[in-house]
Amino acid sequence: MSKTLNITINGVVYEVEPGSTILEAARKAGIIIPTLCYHKDLCVAGNCRVCVVEIVGQARLAASCATPCQENMEILTNTLKVRNSRKHILELLLSEHNADCTKCYKNGNCELQKLAAEYKIMSQDLIDLVPFKAYTVDRYSPSIIKDDSRCVRCQRCVRTCAELQGVNALTVAHKGDKMKITTFFENSMNEVVCTNCGQCVNHCPTGALIEKNYIEEVWTAIADPEKHVVVQTAPAVRVGLGEELGFEPGTRVTGKMVAALKNLGFDAVLDTDFTADLTIMEEGTELLTRLKKILVDKDEKVKLPMATSCSPGWIKYIEHMYPEYLDLLSTCKSPQQMFGALVKTYYAKARNIDPSTIVSVSIMPCTAKKFEATRPEMHDSGYRDVDYVLTTREMAIMIKQAGIDFMKLPEKKYDRLMGESTGAGVIFGATGGVMEAALRTVYEIVTGREVPFENIDITPVRGLDGVREASIKIEKPLEIWSFLDGVELKCAIAHGLVNAKKVMESIKNHTSDYHFIEFMACPGGCLGGGGQPIPTNPEIREKRTKAIYAEDAGMPIRKSHLNPEVIKIYKDFLGQPNGEMSHKLLHTKYTPRNRY
Amino acid sequence: MNQTHELITELADKHGRRRENLLPILQGVVEKENYLSDYSMIEIARALDIPAAEVYGTATFYSFLEYKPMGEFVIRICKTITCSMKGKNQILLTIKDMLKIGVGETTPDKKFSLLETNCLGWCHKAPAMLINNEMFTELSPERVREILSEFMKRPAQ
Amino acid sequence: MSTTYNLKRADFIFRNENDWEKILNRTLQRDKQELINELISSELKGRGGAGFPTGLKWKLTSEAPADQKYVICNADEGEPGTFKDREILSMVPFKVLSAMAICGYIVGASKGYIYLRGEYRFLKTDLEKAIAEFDYYCKEIKFDFHIEIFMGSGAYICGEETALFESMEGKRGEPRNKPPFPSFVGYMGKPTVINNVETLAHTYTIFKHGAKKFYDLGVQFSRGTKLFSVSGDTPKPGIYELELGMSLQDFVDEFGDGDTKAVQVGGASGFLVPRKRFGETAIGFKGKLTGISLPTGGSMMLFNSSRSMFKVLDNYLEFFREESCGQCTPCRVGCQQLLIGIKAVKQGIKPASYLDNLLKLTETMQLTAKCGLGQSVANSFSSIVENFREEMIY
Q1: What's the CA gap between B149 and B141, in Å, rounded?
Q2: What is the pLDDT of residue C288?
Q3: Which of A194, A297, B83, C156 fits a 20 to 30 Å CA distance from A169?
Q4: Mean pLDDT across the stretch C352-359?
Q5: 8 A C-beta contact, residue A210 and residue B96
């Protein structure tokens, strides 16, 4: 049993776990020490020096995030020396910063701004260094804008891209006054291996990394009487949007969200969860077809495991890093793109609207979806399937701009035809959700029975561990699926690209034998996506996860194949899952890309 | 292009393919090719299985690992205080006059590049300069002209 | 306490009696604990600039539990005005190699590295020859210790111990957070002894002649001798081994050109001592004698009255601005602010009182910077601005 340590903070004695840093001990004790480069998701850097504190007996101040507690350490967090030093550090940061806050996208949600306000930096004695620097703004990526003039060089984005995602598109380059955060050979973000996942945007404390926003374009479309603007909302948005509008993390605001969108002036408010259910039908059928081809037909060309394909960050990742394994991917489009293709064909026909006047907008927790909408193969409807992608954050901005009092909104329901969904559709927003939805349907198709879990909650696939495994044994299947009798369906779930790499390496080294894998680029799944409210941390993601599963438990229908609108679309329009119409509109192909 | 690939394979075989072998490999490429092109950085990234951005970030940290094309002979003049006091500016003027290039530039025949650098460790014999790995101290404008003339006579690699 | 020591020359480092094989062999037979005690009792402190007690460093590393340990010789001599390590490695490399091997024996390391700065590439061939000969001898006496050279590539900050480890690990030379210290977590996360070239040469002297001989030289807190790299306005530029504790006045009397206005003690990270303070300044660690301690490797740059102190400070700040790793805010932005600030005052854009703002800034840098570079800028800045204020303004 390890002994606890006794330390004193501001005169009060505390017992702390050995190995804790001063910052961790102070937080447990309810003492707030300001930080900038520190982030719960990432390793300790200790470079901003904002969190300095005084340790009695030491001449220099210590960075509390990086200094481990020692027995009998006496720490002072609020002496004159400490406050003056912190103020000076902030002044230094502001002197090399484009401090024109009114013109900054992060105005109001910027950590540097908050600290400057707290310490009342009312005047700047130091010389403004910005005119001496050749700062650039990179707007070439469809998803992310990188503005070097707002960078505080905390390196959170570099650590995120390296540790959390394993993509390493960003790096620190040069030294001294030329030190900057940039990409390989300082190319623009769209020219390097960036997967557009937006985790860097989520972790950036200032406006140095922001999403490319399309708010004005959407307002213009809504105002245009000739245009019929349709909006779809992703599952994860309904458990994140509340945070931007005054609610606690993990509050479900589905009804209010729909009401707000109607208020904003969208002609139809529909649900991506509908196409999530559709994806399950298509992907489930695809999986069973592959299994049949391998087990019965012994077709060598068909490969297992099958990997999900709804996360565009993951897709770009595998295209760069493992292009030789692209045939593992399901050919299904993501729910967003399926929706886009259908809205300008099925929906247009049913509502008798000229598809060229339809503007298809989506609200996503994701920045990679902005890239996905621009992919050249996403034009199967004859037009660009999804015209604009807005993040959860952008939607909140529009709601505020419209002067809507979100908290007072009544609950409203989605419009018909592509607005009905099931619990299986909504859990797409959490890691493990796609897997669970797929298993609920596939198992029932094959055996005629519900999955053998209480309440059909497949708990083994849930949780926030980076890589999870689960298996379901198929017993006593229906006659036509007899070839699956006794087969143990092995599944894996990975979220965060660094975990996707682990699973891909196990496939490469033949140390795993999965049949079906769900890959999500973002930690936590879509609910932790690059477009979700900032800040993000493990506690917030856990609350959002609980909300998603609560939403699922509360839905009247919880299996994709029982969604009446899904049944209708096959009857009226698509025919069969994986049929000719489906292949035309709902399936896609992938592009191998350079690794470097 | 292939030459670079072979060079890197050779260096990786000699030094190893782990992250801690990166610096000797970068140095090896700079020695043979005078600088690190984006192609060579990508090949190094491939050989060591590390991200290309990391190779770039590490290389640009070190002043002697050039990532812009350099001449065959890189002249580095010390600009730290003692050399500065002892006449480095005259030396610089002499070189600029002889080679017709400024600091940070390369001659059109790609033979010489001119850079300034920090303390070379010869303060008692200032002013000093490095040309590639050769050290020249107690410089005067006349000596510099002699030295550069000798280098100009050297055959191209 | 007045300083009454005249310059006392010594000749331990460069005197080469070609007896390294004998000394090495003899020392390797002795008890490890006894060797540590000998080193501690000599009161040898690091000669690279930080001045950490060498015996203590070796003791801590020997006690750290690990499956692998390292001995690294820090030859990344980059402090302006310092050139003694180059000379040691050219003239008496075997003393350094033997010292590394003895250290390896004591702490339990079988691998040693010499981190040689890129600017000293021309030393590599001869040094490799010496290492080959050394290796051969070690094989003969069946002592398992191998030394390799690791070349630097032009980065002053890599002289900082943790930045050096990062560089050897193939990364940017950015200093790490301390604690943990190198004796516990060093190169590749293993306990590492990292010593300056000169420090190792002194340990050789101690093992050859005994700690008392070393201890008897110098003064309290500053035992033994030190190599001084003398340059600037002096008729006798070069390297001199002198006992510590001498008065700066005596030094200037010996090495000045008769018109010495100021001496920069310890390079750009050190202090500028003006003429009026020569008499009350002694050169050594722990400035109870003086107020000045010797923070770096013995660099002594002399300036006569023709030199502009503004240009000197400008030169130092330019150096730091370029060589800073750029990681931490106070150093990265602070160095830029200081340089631009003194230029602005000189040009009249900012009033003379702005210098006081800058002095306060250096205090913050001293308190909050992550490593010695940012922490030491205050030394030269404050000593120059306080003693030569008029030169900053007019």
Answers
A1: 12
A2: 45
A3: C156
A4: 96
A5: no
Q: Can you give the residue ranges of every domain in chain B? A: 2-59, 73-153
Residue pair C263/C294 in contact (Cβ under 8 Å)? The answer is: no
What tokens does A135 get?
């700062």
Q: What is the pLDDT of residues A150-190, one digit of tens each?
A: 999 999 999 999 999 999 999 999 999 999 999 999 999 99
Q: Letter for the amino acid at C336?
A: Q
The CA-based dihedral angle spanning residues C289, C295, C300, C304, taken in that order and rounded to the nearest 10 degrees: -70
Q: 10 Å Cβ neighbour count for B47?
A: 18
The pLDDT of C159-171, averaged and rounded, is 96
Q: In what order do the strands lie in the sheet with A516-520?
A: A306-307, A516-520, A488-495, A467-473
Residue C9 is given by DSSP the state B
Is the pLDDT at C2 greater than 50, yes or no? no
| pLDDT tens, residue by residue, C119-135 | 999 999 999 999 999 99
Residues C269 and C266: their CA atoms lie apart, in Å, by: 6
- The answer, yes or no, to whether residue A244 has pLDDT greater than 50, is yes
A146 is catalytic: no
pLDDT, residue A83, reads 95
A151 noted as active-site residue: no
Cα separation, A66 vs C179, in Å, equals 8
Of residues A491, A492, A454, the one with CA closest to residue A474:
A491
Strand partners, A53: A62
In which band, very low, low, confident or very high, does the pLDDT at C283 lie, cut at 50, 70 and 90?
confident
Phi then psi dihedrals of residue A137, to 5 deg: -120, 125
Is the separation of the CB atoms in C332 and C326 below 8 Å? Answer: yes
Please give the model's pTM, rounded to 2 decimal places.
Answer: 0.95
Q: Are the beta carbons of A434 and A308 closer than 8 angstroms? A: yes
Question: Cis peptide leading into C80, omega within 30 of 0?
Answer: no
Catalytically annotated residue among A372, A394, A518, A565: A372
ipTM over 0.85: yes
CATH architecture of B73-153: 3-Layer(aba) Sandwich (3.40)
CA distance A67 to A63: 6
**Do the chains contact at C341 and A127, CB–CB below 8 Å?**
yes
pLDDT tens, position by position, A445-484: 999 999 999 999 999 999 999 999 999 999 999 999 999 9
Q: Is there a contact between B148 and B91 (Cβ–Cβ < 8 Å)?
A: no
* Residue in B19, B85, B122 nearest the CB of C83: B122
The A-side interface with C (CB below 8 A) comprises 44, 46-50, 52, 60-61, 63, 66-68, 81, 84-85, 88-89, 92-93, 95-96, 125-127, 129, 132, 152-153, 155, 172, 174-179
- The single residue of A154, A200, A204, A526 carrying the catalytic annotation is A526
Render pLDDT for C205-224 as a digit per residue (tens, 0 to 9): 999 999 999 999 988 888 89
Residue position matching structure tokens 């290796």: C135
**A117 contact partners, CB below 8 Å, separation of at least 6:** none
Q: Would you say residue A360 has pLDDT above 90? A: yes
Residues written for chain A = 596
pLDDT tens per residue, range C46-80: 998 888 999 999 999 999 999 999 999 999 999 99
Question: Could you report how far apart the first and last alpha carbons of chain C are, in Å?
Answer: 37
- Does domain C20-215 match CATH 3.40.50.1400? no
C-beta of residue A497 within 8 angstroms of C-beta of residue A314: yes
Residue C155: its chain A contacts at CB < 8 A?
175
User: Does the beta-carbon distance from B46 to A596 stay under 8 Å?
Assistant: yes
Domain boundaries, chain C: 20-215, 309-393
Q: How far apart are CA A468 and CA A398, in angstroms?
A: 38
Pairing of the two strands B73-78 and A12-16:
unpaired
Q: In CATH terms, are C20-215 and C309-393 the same topology?
A: no
Looking at the DSSP bridge assignments, the partners of residue A15 are A6
Q: What number does CATH give the domain C309-393?
A: 1.20.1440.230
